[in-house]
Structure formats: structure tokens, C-alpha cells
Amino acid sequence: MDVRDRNIAVFRFADGRLPDTSTRIAADRGPAAIRTAGAVPAAAPAPAWRN
Description:
Blueprint: E1 7-11, E2 20-26
Antiparallel strand pairs: 1-2
């Protein structure tokens, strides 16, 4: 988020790098929260029940 220019820059993941796509999204306000792409979490292992 570029607060001065009021836009959000778009990047992409490519071969372990983060190149700029030169795409900008106009924003008339500052961000409350911006989420980034993340890895899908692995499934949690089943609990080991003891009798």
C-alpha cells in the first residue's frame, strides 16, 4: 500500500522471486487490513487416543 499515492501495488510469486506486475489498484482510504497469499496449511495429525 502506497499511502502517499493512495494505491496498492500488485506483485506475483514466480520462481522464488516477487516481481512487480506494474498493476496498481486505486484506494481512496488507508487499509484496515490487507491479506497476502499464503500457503495452504497442512492437515493437523489425528490425536493419539490413549485408553
